[in-house]
Design brief:
- The chain has one domain: Alkaline Phosphatase, subunit A (3-Layer(aba) Sandwich).
- The longest helix has 26 residues.
- With 415 residues, the chain is an alpha/beta fold.
- A hairpin with a 4-residue loop joins strand 3 and strand 4.
- Helices cover 35% and strands 13% of the residues.
Length: 415
């Protein structure tokens, strides 16, 4: 058999193993706590001293956030006609200009906007929208609406920025791995609780878990690959736990830090991660019934946590290096429903937050009087324009058309 044939078989076997093990990593993020890496020993997993690479944090509001009650167009009579009961009165809003006001509890977002550190992107959506949480989120995760894509847009971005893969380059803080970070060449770090980021088992079994055999001369390629994965996983879990155990902050993140404190700990520890993915989990923003108080609380938690994260970054000297992009899989229908909530809609808001951001409004706000046949907003900004802006304008990756399967004009969010 030829050497070329042997190599092809080996590469195919490695891809199969990586796919299978990646599934295990995602499925057992909190059960087994085993991240998967490829590469060198623990010392190679740490960042170089003083590195100043730009970092993107993607923050997901799962469930479909109601943008109209997040940032209220309080001078538009149509808003109050469509929402006579759940519309928020102008006197209660945190007004940021002569047209828009944040929900009453969003002091953190109000502060960030007025400091010039927040860009609000209006009317974000895509052609032929889906009203299914699963389907629409898959479109946002892959940046491929109404089409198929095997890998997530963040995963593809990691592959493009760091070909060949690299340990700790891509971190997903959640109970399970998001499709958004699925990558051909990178295996994301996936964890929930840093303190429990170890392989679970009985105490008596710990020495067995902590021992990774050396590859002997008669070790097959597949065995050697698995041993390398196990050793890298062990090294990386130590780094994550150590970063969290050393991290202390006086900054108030509000009632729920929404995993952003964990991101700050990893950044403060010098992890070489360029891409973080986390969010508000469990479909929390699916506000079909009695939306008013619930939605306001959710927005308060998000606003406080992101504002706290920004203040913490400033404290550790990383505020110039980090930008947060906030999105949800769709907005809500414009008219309130009979249960004093809102149903699945179309276009919504996206936010880009950070010290390097040129704050203000971007995109055209959708009309509240020219709705589609289902009483939904007509989107005005393809969400992939914001993705392209993060890739090109912030991270400096220019070939966005290759990753997004089309050319999308960037927004002037970064000066």
């Amino acid at each position: 058999m030829s050497a070329s044939s042997d190599l092809n078989k080996l590469l195919a076997r490695r891809r199969l193993l990586k796919g299978a093990l990646g599934g295990v990593c995602a499925h057992t993020a909190t059960m087994a706590g085993m991240p998967l890496f490829f590469g060198q020993a623990a010392q190679a997993l740490a960042a170089e001293p003083g590195r100043d690479d730009r970092i993107l944090v993607v923050f997901e509001l799962s469930g479909g956030n109601d943008g109209l009650n997040t940032l209220v167009p309080y001078t538009d009579d149509a808003y109050y006609k469509h929402r006579p009961n759940i519309g928020i009165k102008a006197s209660k809003l945190r007004k940021i200009d002569d047209r828009w006001g944040f929900s009453p509890g969003m002091a953190g977002f109000e502060r960030l906007y007025k400091q010039g550190n927040m860009a609000v992107v209006h009317g974000c959506g895509y052609e032929g929208p889906s009203f299914s949480h699963f389907t629409s989120m898959a479109y946002w995760h892959t940046a491929a609406p109404n089409s198929g894509e095997e890998y997530g847009w963040v995963g593809r971005l990691a592959d493009a920025m760091k070909p060949g893969g690299a340990p700790n380059y891509l971190v997903n803080i959640d109970e399970t791995q998001s499709l958004a970070v699925r990558s051909r060449e990178h295996t994301p770090v996936v964890f929930d609780d840093p303190e429990k980021f170890v392989r679970k088992g009985f105490y008596q079994e710990r020495p067995l878990f902590e021992h990774v055999a050396d590859a002997g001369g008669d070790t097959s390629d597949a065995q050697r690959y698995l041993l390398e994965v196990a050793r890298s996983a062990q090294d990386a879990s130590v780094l994550v736990r150590d970063a969290w155990s050393r991290y202390k902050t006086p900054v108030d993140y509000g009632i729920i830090n929404l995993d952003l404190m964990k991101v700050a700990a990893m950044i403060d520890a010098g992890m070489p991660t360029r891409l973080y993915y986390t969010g508000y989990r469990h479909n929390s923003f699916d506000t079909h019934v009695h939306q008013g108080d619930l939605h306001a609380r959710l927005l308060t938690y998000v606003s406080d946590a992101i504002n706290g994260f920004m203040r913490d970054l400033d404290r550790i000297g990383k505020a110039d290096n980090v930008v947060v992009m906030v999105f949800s899989e769709f907005g809500r229908r414009v008219p309130e429903n009979t249960s004093l909530g809102t149903d699945h809609g179309t276009a919504g808001l996206m936010f880009v937050v950070g010290k390097p951001v040129k704050g203000g409004h971007y995109g055209t706000p959708p009309s509240l009087t020219k709705l589609d046949a289902g009483d939904n907003l007509v989107y005005t900004t393809d969400f992939r324009r914001v993705y392209a802006t993060m890739m090109d304008g912030w991270l400096g990756y220019k070939q966005t058309d290759k990753l997004l399967n089309g050319k999308f004009e960037t927004l002037p969010v970064f000066g």
